């Protein structure tokens, strides 16, 4: 008999029968006397639930055992005669003070003598409560997770009915709140279909997904308001079988807009708004495809502003930026809408002219020159900016964007070297030639590291006494595989690549060290070293010379630097400052290959030069060629008038030597006396016993110029 069946039955209990009855029950039970409200009997489960011995429970009043106000009120009403039962969840206090939850049922049982007992049964709910709390916590955490994610989440069953969703889902789709409260699946799906650009395609795709419970998908959905959503669909599993589907929705609009903006920035010059080099390369690729299809061609113009650095240095970069913006606008006006103007960087622009042959490219270049000829006026300033233009044609000057841009740039540099302010077409070189130059450049760099370079010295002879008074250091290269490589082959490549600076510094140090070694042997002789234009323009060139002299311990007067006319005239004022600094060191300087450039007498008077060197091209025709004879005589007389020493190079015959001596030339060098020799051969040739005695003291003019014997 269970407590539920005892509520309305009249019995005559006996104590031992009562105890036997409740001991057989699994729930905690005790009997309470209805008249005294004292505990009459308890079972073992009751003592375990409360942690009390039976002796402490038997005879205890229910008022003293009440833990809640509800219990106290119930037993007060029971004492007043109420027989109404009670069935609730309540809190119990164990003997150790711990409060536990229990399901409590109190029923009245009438006895034959008119009295009765209360049957109190308790079932421990602690574990169930704990599980409920854990489940509620888990559900709360799950809900919080769903609400905190940036994605909209929708969970449906296998039939496509909505089971749950988060607020982000409702927000992404703009679902009305009343529609969500109705839980009307068809109305929600209809709303979503009406929100997309192609509702039919959306419904078809959704039906296909629902028909395949194991399908995993990722789709892009375009909404009518312009937003773009990504929908990812995954099957939901339970116990190894699919029970539904989870959809996640993510707004890609901002990401796509940012990606588009990044792409625009990566293809656009920030200052002028023109396409940049990357965008130009892509448009050239497109132009190539169109040209091949139409069997036509196009032109690429490289436009570089002349002396733009002077604008930045003089007016400042803010004015320089204004000039670049104005140039960009003028270049736009030179072309058709289908053509492209791009800024490659700095003051360099490029024009892509579609369907243009050589004549069309020339017309475009002339329009550019005319546009740039107009004065630039900013505030109160007015000035002119010219440009150099290089032209490359497709397909003759390159089959790809990089090759075409390189061809146009090379043509532009040729214009720069020829005087600027003009345009020029690219002159194609064979690919084999370019490749060989690359290989030669690499081999040359390795040669310097591996010590394959060496110096030969050509004697310089005084025409009056026949005595060797100097030596020109000349570079030689013997490659282990190629053999001797002439300077005429590798020096132009070194100048083009800029490696001539490193080679020139090596030659300078080696020659200075050799002159110092000879001096320590008692052989005082001046050594001449050729200086390239690029080497001379280095800001630390004077310091490099000073350090080489100091490291070797050589008096500066025993070093001569041979400079070309182009070095001195490229930037005359800067060259003058550098020459004056070298003169203060005590270094001698000469103009090499004199007569082949455009030297001005005014500059020659200002520059601290000690010597003029007549180029070998004027010596070859002596003495029979009247033109060469006239030029040589003029140079010698001019040198004497300026109180400069004059030396002729390339003297190969006695007739040439005699002519120079009669004309008043001071010195010569060439095969007539000796070619460029290795160090040991030079020493044997110059200081052998049969040489004539030292020449007389220098003339007053030479002493004034500081020429040492």
TrEMBL record:
Residues 437-690 form the EAL domain. One of its GO terms (molecular function) is cyclic-guanylate-specific phosphodiesterase activity. It holds the Pfam family GGDEF. This is PAS domain S-box-containing protein/diguanylate cyclase (GGDEF)-like protein. The lineage of its organism: Bacteria, Pseudomonadati, Pseudomonadota, Betaproteobacteria, Burkholderiales. GO terms for biological process: cellular response to nitric oxide. It catalyses: 3',3'-c-di-GMP + H2O = 5'-phosphoguanylyl(3'->5')guanosine + H(+). Residues 21-59, 138-184 form the PAS domain. CDD domains: EAL, GGDEF, PAS. Residues 296-428 form the GGDEF domain.
